[in-house]
Structure prediction request, 327 residues.
Amino acid sequence: MPAPIRVAVTGAAGQIGYSLLFRIAAGQMFGPDQPVILQMVEVPVEKAMKAAEGVAMELDDCAYPLLNGIEISDNADQGFKDANWCLLVGAKPRGPGMERADLLKDNGKIFIGQGKAIDRVAAENARVAVVGNPANTNCMIAASQAKRLPADRFTAMVRLDQNRAQTQLAKKASVHNTDVTDIFIFGNHSPTMFPAFHIAKINGKPVPETIGHHAWLQDEFCSTVGKRGAAIIAARGLSSAASAANALIDHVRDLTTPGKIHSVAVKSGGHYGFDPNVWAGMPVKTTGHGTYEILTDYPLDDFAKQKIAATNEELVSERDTVKDMLG
Ligand code: NAD
Ligand code: LMR
Prediction:
């Protein structure tokens, strides 16, 4: 067995935390041979810390063979100490009628302190995945605070959107979701995101050819995927949690599995017409344990260019809103 890795999870007593921690401890994120130490991070509020202790008790009660330790803390310097992976989930969720960007003023500031702390105390090889909304811009804030860790260590999650898009295409074509491949999310984790159906394939054939219904792809499909989070809030009264935790498992597992091609929000570097300094969803290929290259050669048609311009504009405007939070 290799040495255990340290995985810090913020928002450990929250809804996503409750779905996520058990799956990490069971080996679903880092594989069946990789022991883990969980560093649960919460706010210094008695109710949250008590709830985190309860979750830790339940983790103990699972007797997971790969779980080599549980630490609970209410501060970032302790919580991220020596962490190899920092999973930044802890933030306010939106309620009905809100957009994720409405959370920026409250949630953005969390990522200033956490970005600084990760840079100070996390492991040399630390990598960060941001889930707390609005995830792309929060990730940019955290990365901007880091002076030691390079920007490519900071990723935000658009995998839930990729998974949603995959299933919507499968349902429309009456195939199994595993028959749908090459579906990538470009841009913001918001209704402006572009699920790039023109690249996607069903049983190896281009989606536009297989589905044939262009108006559905351009309108209903993009809108259903982009507004799925709000539809879940409307139905459940709470934002997605189990599917979000599942997507984070997929995000990190695929980022640590060489050869995987998947959607990740990364510093755009100007690819696909994005502003170089925003975090935008795009296709990446994993090259090693947490390392990746952006795949830059997928073609964009006029519709794709127009969608990407709109989501880029929103990312740039979110960056303007948080300019005082950037390091
Ligand atoms: P929740 O309210 O159930 O839990 C959030 C937890 O975070 C709480 O226990 C809270 O005490 C804790 N927290 C708040 N600030 C913290 C901090 N500074 N440090 C550590 N912990 C902190 O919310 P949830 O449903 O688990 O959602 C968490 C976040 O994830 C929300 O912002 C939500 O919008 C977002 N989300 C993102 C995606 C995505 O695809 N990117 C999907 C679903 C949810
Ligand atoms: C989601 O996409 O389900 C999450 O980002 C939660 C939300 O606010 O929609």
Remarks:
- The first strand starts at residue 5 and ends at 10.
